[in-house]
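Lab notebook, bench 4. Continuing the backlog of folding jobs that were queued last week. Each job is logged with the same field layout so the records can be merged later without manual cleanup. Today's entry covers SRPBCC domain-containing protein, a 149-residue chain. Filled in by technician R.K.

JOB TYPE: sequence-to-structure
TARGET: SRPBCC domain-containing protein
LENGTH: 149
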Amino acid sequence: MQKICTDIEINAPAEQVWHILTDFENFENWNPFMLIKKGKLETGSQLEVTLHPPGSKPMSFKPTVLKVDPVREFRWIGSIWIKGIFDGEHAFRIEELDNSRTRLVQCERFRGILAPLIMHIMGENIEAGFEEMNLSLKNVSENAAKIHI
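JOB STATUS: finished
OUTPUT FIELD FOLLOWS
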């Protein structure tokens, strides 16, 4: 199994970060890495996701939402191509540090026959995409928090 985890501290309340992170309709306005084109934030819902890792071609897939714990976590599982070839379980965790600071943890566990090869080729680009998304979420959340002060 292969795994990528990133985290970032955000100077904004957890509720604000969660709201932006789960407002799929507005992802294209701030998220350079991931677009969620369809789907609801409900356990069992199927999403339509396109990832744009830096330096790589976009990848589209249809993951299924596994868990939604408001203002704490949501996760999905999906496959590129056929299940068992290259599968990933993606998690977003929100940790409230205090009333105005939050940590976002974004992780994905990759499995499947081609996971080691694909991660060798694209792992750094995928991790860079996570980092870009985290930084963009930080900037948007902190700007929104300043407006609400």
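OBSERVATION: The chain has one domain: 2-147.
SIGNED: R.K.
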